[in-house]
Amino acid sequence: MANEDTTFNVDAFQNAQFSDANSTEYVPVPVGEFPAVIDKQAIRQAKQSIILDVTWKIDSEEVARETGIENPTVRQSIFLDVNENGNLEFGKGKNVQLGRLREALGQNVAGQPWTFSHLVGQVAKVRIAHRADTTSTPGNTIMRAEVAGVTKL
To answer: To which H or E segment does residue 142 belong?
Structure first.
């Protein structure tokens, strides 16, 4: 990427000629348990579901070398239980995945004010699993890394 002391020339870059081929496959974060930090969180709506997406930055030089990515990340998606008014549910059996995440981060404390933004910058150990994706590229199976669990570091 361009360094602060130089000006990036978009015209020169987009008109540059290349002879190397680009990679067509990602190397997923390997299966295992790794220390990680929450880099960002976002809430989105997909059809009738509200989903919390947590992006974990894996803190492992070995994973960075293996994937070829300087700061490898993996996303954890948590479906949220909300009531008809759009409020987060706290009843028995509601938002269990969110509760487990907050517990691993020491943030699942009754009476203590909490917001989703409190997640960012928190550290934990993430357990990575692979899932076969056959829908993104029909005829090919792509292995996707996903967070299968989170525990205290």
So the answer is: strand 142-151
